[in-house]
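B., you asked whether I could sanity-check this one before it goes into the benchmark set. Here's the sequence:
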Amino acid sequence: MNMNETGSLLPELSPQYDPWDPIRSYRKYGKHVLTSVELTITNLCNMRCEHCAVGDSLTMSEGPRLPLDMVLRKLDQVEHLETISLTGGEPSYHMKTVKDYMLPILKYARERGVRTQINSNLTLDLARYELLAPYLDVMHISFNYLNAQDFHQVGFVNASHPISYETAARMYERMVENTIALSIGGLYVSAESMINTRTFDKLPGIHRLIEEMGCRRHEVHPMYPSSFASHLPMVTLPQLRASIHRLLDERNKDMWMLFGTLPFFACNDQADDLALIRRLREEPNVTVRNDPDGRNRLNISTFTGDVYVTDFANEPPLGNVHDDDLDTIFARWENNPLNLRVNCFCSEAACCGPNLLVADSYYKDVDFKNRQAII
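And here's what the prediction gave me:
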């Protein structure tokens, strides 16, 4: 039996239907509205990846979470809710959290007709993931490796004590085995790869492994300086372009490839940028997702109730669920100077502009609101 075959009448996820992309709700409502909520379920993780965007918030222990009924009540108040994402740390770190917190949220979402995603490393026992699978739309994993050696080098750089290669290799093998098992069972597994100095010339090989594991989608995002990754060297724009072209040359064209947070825009006047954008538009089963963070999504800490633009934000919280409903907090963000800086929209290019990390990394002095699409 297909593990997530639960009679949902929602359309199948596809390049034509990506409910996490804020451009859908923008076109529907004429402005950005809150359609997506991300819940930080835990700050515990059994890995310490060098690229982790929330690494600085990871802990060895944590206190109580918000009561489940309060979380569900706050979700109920979001008028246009379409997606819920559960993230961490490793959300399924404790089986009690899986059974008593995550599973009820997923069941609530399924009953309401809301799509769900869990961000996991899939390195724990398969049984806990199988509990969640019947009620889950997307299992999202990070995959930036060609082998167990890469996994060992990347996954434990910031660990508090040395992790042996043998331990890392067992975790890598379990992750691969779990991904294959869940994919065979019918769960939609989407693997994300970061383009960084370790991976920019390895993406075709990484893509082939993702295909072999049965993943339905390959997500590709450039790495930007945040948290554990804040000190790592960034790839140059020419390297990024070359890496994407090489991946497009060698990929499986039947698999959905989703790019996100790309620093290339149809209003750029560089020929190389425009050539890449044209190719991305023309390639079959390729999409470029506009960043949900700060567009149609907010992140909630289930420990404090604080609400942020994103789970890796360095900015102070926009509010707290103890004081306001989420739609009210989102409305407050609409007039925030940070949002006004990058909140542009181009219908011709199907583009919602750069997010704050992209703007700070490559376009500090550019006002995108005064630019127009060239193609």
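One thing to flag: The first strand starts at residue 36 and ends at 40. Otherwise nothing jumped out at me.
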